[in-house]
Design a protein that fits this description.
- 31% of the residues are buried.
- Strand 12 and strand 13 form a beta hairpin.
- The protein has 2 domains: 115 residues, Response regulator (Rossmann fold); 109 residues, Beta Barrel (OB fold (Dihydrolipoamide Acetyltransferase, E2P)).
- By secondary structure, it is of the alpha/beta class.
- The chain contains 7 helices and 16 strands.
- This is LytTR family DNA-binding domain-containing protein.
- It comes from Hymenobacter aerilatus.
- InterPro entries: CheY-like_superfamily, LytR-like, LytTR_DNA-bd_dom, Sig_transdc_resp-reg_receiver.
- One of its GO terms (molecular function) is DNA binding.
Length: 242
């Protein structure tokens, strides 16, 4: 499953790309935005595998985006200007889609991206759920190799992101990916300070520096807030502020 975003300064263009992405079972839509700086932040956080990127945008052009992005993800350019094709390919883009974009042409570009990206690794056999340490303030999670377990202190965990049958546990100094569902992990962590704020995210209330609408800010990370979790989050944040 490739995690995708659509970036274009015209909202109707992102809506079209989003509708195309949602038609392909092997793609998942992380989000759409008219702000390339926001999209760059998502890429730098490692939340994106494939970007559908317009070229002519204010603040940050698509070509500038490519230079900053480097090789963090694959990019398919979407534009009405064919003259940028050569420079785009110099940045190792997957494909170059000229507007208006037909679905069959979009699908061929996606197939190119899938051929270039590594196939997902087979899921390892299930391992026991994390076990709290005797001190009651940390847990052990399975590492990337056999018989390797990592100890994580609760106080160091910023947030946890679901990745299907895996979770990504983010601390100030590292990101640990382990075979575990977000639901099972949430049952191992003390609540509060840990709180489910989205179907794909669990955060530490102690690490939140700001909540603005449907966005939580933790260090330099942004976390979305799901509608069904908003009331509980705001109530706990208010209670802690009193």
């Amino acid at each position: 499953m490739l995690r995708c975003i659509a970036v274009d300064d015209e909202a109707y263009a992102t809506r079209l790309l989003a509708s195309y992405i949602q038609k392909i079972p092997t793609l998942t839509l992380v989000g759409t935005t008219t702000n390339p700086i926001e999209a760059l932040h998502w890429v730098q956080e490692g939340r994106v595998d494939l970007v559908f990127l317009d070229i002519q945008m204010p603040e940050l052009t698509g070509l500038q985006f490519l230079k900053i992005c480097g090789n963090r993800c694959k990019v398919i350019l979407t534009t009405a200007y064919p003259e940028y094709a050569l420079e785009g390919y110099e940045h190792d883009v997957v494909d170059y889609l000229l507007k208006p974009i037909a679905f069959d042409r979009f699908l061929r570009a996606v197939q190119k991206a899938q051929a270039l990206l590594p196939a997902p690794a087979a899921a390892p056999p299930p391992v026991p759920t994390p076990v709290a340490s005797p001190a009651g303030n940390s847990l052990f999670v399975k590492g990337e190799s056999k018989n390797k377990f990592l100890r994580l202190d609760y106080a160091d965990i910023l947030y946890v992101e679901a990745l299907k049958n895996y979770v990504s546990i983010v601390t100030p100094g590292q990101r640990v990916v382990t075979y575990q569902t977000l639901k099972d992990l949430s049952e191992q962590l003390p609540q509060p300070p840990f709180l489910r704020v989205h179907k794909s995210y669990l955060v530490s209330l102690d690490k939140i520096r700001m909540v603005d609408g449907n966005t939580i800010y933790i260090a330099d990370h942004t976390i979305p807030v799901g509608e069904t979790y908003r009331d509980t989050l705001f109530r706990l944040v208010r209670d802690r502020g009193e």
